[in-house]
Amino acid sequence: MSLRNxxxxxxxxxxxxxxxxxxxxxxTPLRPLEEGEFRIETLYLGVAAVMRNYMLNLERxxxxxxxxxxxxxxxxxxxxxxxxxxxxVGEIVQGKLGWQRYAIADGSTYFLMFKVRQRVAxxxxxxxxxxxxxxxxxxxxxxxxxxxxxxxxxxxxxxxxVGSNVGxxxxxxxxxxxxxxxxxxxxxxxxxxxxxxxxxxxREQDVxxxxxxALPDGMDVFFDNVGGEILDAGLAHLRRHxxxxxxxxxxxxxxxxxxxxxxxxAFAIFKKMARMEAFFIYELDxxxxxxxxxxxxxxxxxxxxxxxDILEGLEQMPAALIRLYEGRNVGKQLVRxxxx
Length: 340
Hints:
By secondary structure, the protein is α/β, with parallel strands linked by helices. It has 2 domains: about 5-130 and about 305-335, Quinone Oxidoreductase, Chain A, domain 1 (Alpha-Beta Complex); about 130-280, Rossmann fold, CATH 3.40.50.720. It is built from 10 helices and 15 strands. The strands form 3 sheets. Strands 3, 4, 5, 6, 7, 14 and 15 form a 7-stranded mixed sheet that branches. The chain has a 6-stranded parallel sheet with strand order 10-9-8-11-12-13, sandwiched between helices. A two-stranded antiparallel ribbon has the order 1-2.
């Protein structure tokens, strides 16, 4: 094992969009393990839109991140050393590893560590379709959105990590999905591979007008990953008793923190006797096993195609996060740290 660790630490609080200069790559010695701890060699790391909020200490569910601290983030890796009998050398795990080559955990609830048991797909999917991203897609649509056969579903951010699953899940459950994405290439992917019957390019088309064209009778479920103007456009096309699932709001994570977008169509929720609900995936952990089993079954049967966007090397972590905010990723944005 290497005697040194490579880590990305926070160098500056972001002012506006996240920049490479907000991070610093360092090397540190590996310390010996204490009783109850285990060491993990990182195989893959993922990025998420919430990470800018981590950098600004705006998320109270995560430990404060000070200048010089290792960036927070989830990863999947292999246990290479252990002083905890419940976590054995050679096991593949996913959890809070941080932006580093080697991580130390102790099995406590903070690390949200899970053993990777499903092997119908590569281990990278433990950060995507067979991890929290997939669980967010499935439980958000099924448990929060209460989707049912025949429903018309609209999904924003449809080519992202979560959205790339939602259309297929809807189709597998007898519903029909329309996706919103940011390029013609992404829209083509949505309809050719990812289960959507139609797609809207929000950069080139009038979103509210196109929603009306694609869903002339309105929608039953709106799975929103974007917030802001696109959320507002969708609210104008709700059916009676529609369900609006607030999964993310990536459009608001920069400018919207200081100047939140004011929804013009919020009254439609009342007028249509609809329901709008946000959720926090960690609070649904009692249902992770159910979600994982169903997603794995669909993958094994060829009824769910996962989409990953992988950069090579730990040094690519800032670039991966920036790609996410710029909407350049297709599927779950990952970085391969080691082939293990």
